[in-house]
Every structure is written in structure tokens, then in C-alpha cells.
Amino acid sequence: MNDKKTMRSMKKKPQEMDMAPMIDCVFLLLIFFMVSTTFAPMPGIRVQLPPPGKPNPNKPKGLIIRI
Q: How far is residue 41's CA from residue 39's CA, in Å, rounded to a whole number?
């Protein structure tokens, strides 16, 4: 009879897992992969810049706003 009481009391207790160690491992893996990853250079927009020291040949036109 004593065995049945212990079995009942064991069934009533909910089992919980501590999630903190798993979250720590996930963050450590995330940091590791972010640091160790090599990023591929993305091609940008090609712009022709004027040579240094020369003034801009195209002067901006005035802006007229009518209301």
C-alpha cells in the first residue's frame, strides 16, 4: 500500500526542463557562426566620378516651385 502512495505522488508532479542551458548553447552557436562566417562581397552600383581637382561641368539648374 505504501508503494501505491509513492507512485501516485510521483505521477502528480509535473516534470519541467530548464531551458536556460539550451538557450545559452544556441546563443553561443549563433555568435560562433556569425564570427566565423566569411561574407561574399556584393557588387555595388558603378558610378563614374569626375577626376579630382576639376570643377563639375554640369551645373545644377534652379528649382522653381509653383503653388
A: 6
Residue that is written with C-alpha cell 509653383 in the block: 66
CA dihedral (31, 33, 36, 42) positive or negative: negative
Q: How many residues does the chain have?
A: 67
Percent helix, strand, coil in the chain, to 5, is 40, 0, 60
Cβ–Cβ under 8 Å, residues 50 and 56? yes
Convert the pLDDT of each residue in 13-55 to its tens digit. Answer: 677 888 899 999 999 999 999 999 887 777 888 888 877 876 6
